[in-house]
Amino acid sequence: MSPDIKIDIGRARSSAVTAEHGVSPAELKAIAPRVDEGHGALKADRARKRLGFYDLYKDKATLSGVKKSARAFVAEGYENFVVLGIGGSALGITTLVTALKPSYYNLLSADRRQGRPRVFVMDNVDPETFGAMLELCPPEKTLFNVISKSGGTAETVSQLLIVLERLEKSLGKAAVKRHLVVTTGPSSAKGAKSPLQHVKTTYRLQGFSVPANVGGRFSVFSPVGMFPAAVLGIDVDALAAGCRAMDRRTSKPSLKDNPAYLRAAVHYILSERKGKSIAVMMPYSDRLRDVADWYRQLWAESLGKEGSLSGKKPLQCRAQTPVKALGVTDQHSQLQLYLEGPNDKVITILEQSAFECSLKIPNFSARKGGVSYLRAKTMKRLIASEKEATADALRDADRPLIRITLPQVNEHALGQLLYMFEVETAMAGRLFNVNAFDQPAVESIKVFTRKYMGGKA
Ligand code: PA5
């Protein structure tokens, strides 16, 4: 367990960055009735089981099934664990691995990995990368987990078919079930089976279900994220406890008590009234870097819509474009633009208050050369100082900033953080007046792809 994560909107307030660029108490008060209305609608959808993501962490039976199955597979001693999936089927586990496994995990010895396999998340169809993975991961030493809610995504199906052929040729049909696990959604309303379901039945594979009421980008706490996490020794119970802790906070209706609603409201006000059309997520932590990637998909695919909740088209979709950055690396890349370019961004700094090591910078007395201030300090102090410097520079340039602080980077804190972002996105959908839970435009790309591959449009 770790304490609650902290959300501080102080530097996004008009008192910090002027009324032209920040939110005022009056604006927050004015939006409160809409937040209240959104809260009622989301609560009703949750109660009617239309929005399954809220309650995934409570599903003890599924979590214990996931853990049991992971234990059995780990006991087989696989050297590699490969996830085949894309979008919401891949970004969650990538985020958890980067945050919760040691840096350079795959390069550690089996002992240092505590008998857990190396991990590869294959979320693209670049043949060079995929071919390289196949060379590194011979069938007999590898467990594959193919993940697709629809069970028919071209990228994932093509990856699966390549892997399946290799497994069958090298190990024989009967052995495939020891090397391939399927995570997929239910059959279509008419009972039609997806390609993944066909493969699962044909090869008698073990598998997990993605609930029908949970969308891909909201599925990290379902078996989509939890089975890979359990295989890799990530504590799924502590993740669930983190969700529970945040659920307590985000079940409250008021902006004052609910950090997810507060962030949604601040982003909405800054977007609608202050021209902040870009939402930047900037972790000051390598371990949290992929949270920005996960959040980017969640925000973009959920809010970038032209249809309104009522079915009528709004005049103009004004959802924000999410951008990811990394502190301090992007201080030498994007920050110049953030400070002196168009004042069209709301920036979130995501920070961890504790690092596991501090790394002293050696004494430099003989060769001062203008960096004597570094002498006998630590790298931990340097990253903290650079973060404060960025925050101050942003304030002085009247750029609104929200800070999120994790007391520690562990399962409990990650559970809180990702759950909060999911609820925030759900509320942002209500405020921006769009359905946060579909992705109609992504379908058009699938149609064009089928055409280019010689299939029916
Ligand atoms: O959030 C979403 O719904 C998408 O990003 C999907 O996760 C992505 O398109 C992959 O879909 P599927 O899991 O059906 O293969």
Record keyword descriptors for this entry:
457 residues; alpha/beta; Rossmann fold; 5-stranded parallel beta sheet; 15 helices; binds 5-phosphoarabinonic acid
Amino-to-carboxy terminus distance: 51 Å
Task: Indicate the percent of residues in helices.
Answer: 40-55%
User: What's the arrangement of strands in the largest beta sheet?
Assistant: 1-10-9-7-8
The low-confidence parts are none
The CATH class of the largest domain, by name, is Alpha Beta
Structure explained in plain terms:
The protein is of the alpha/beta class and 457 residues long. The protein folds into 2 domains: 6-46 and 238-441, Rossmann fold (3-Layer(aba) Sandwich); 53-234, Rossmann fold. The chain is built from 15 helices and 10 strands. The protein has helices spanning 14-17, 25-47, 60-75, 91-100, 127-136, 154-171, 195-202, 223-231, 236-250, 259-274, 289-303, 335-340, 379-396, 411-432, 440-452; strands at 6-8, 80-84, 118-122, 142-148, 180-184, 206-209, 278-283, 321-324, 345-352, 401-406. The strands form 2 sheets. The protein has a 5-stranded mixed beta sheet, sandwiched between helices. A 5-stranded parallel beta sheet has the order 3-2-4-5-6, with helices on both faces. The longest helix is centred in the N-terminal third of the chain and has 23 residues, at 25-47. The chain is globular. The protein starts with 5 loop residues before the first strand and ends in a 5-residue tail after the last helix. The structure holds 5-phosphoarabinonic acid. 5-phosphoarabinonic acid binds at residues 86-89, 148-150, 153, 156, 215-217, 301, 439, 442.
